[in-house]
Amino acid sequence: MSDVSEKLNETYNGSDGKGTQNSNGERLKFKFNIKGIETSNTDGGSLTDIRKIATDNGIVTSEKDASGNSVIALAAAVTTRSTE
Question: Where is the composition biased (Polar residues) (predicted)?
């Protein structure tokens, strides 16, 4: 998990960890919620299983769908590697 966290932070926040700039020149710093979920299922699960995990661990956004419900930003990375 630390490998994933380090790679995401370096990629999106730069090697100095100070963030990056958007197209308007504003400073942005990305934060990542890295969470390990242990399982005995080593085949990766079905697409339905993976989507449920991504939804259950996603973040509610301020964006609304066509029905007026808040959109969930799905958890982006699912792997069968150990969380250690």
Answer: 10-25
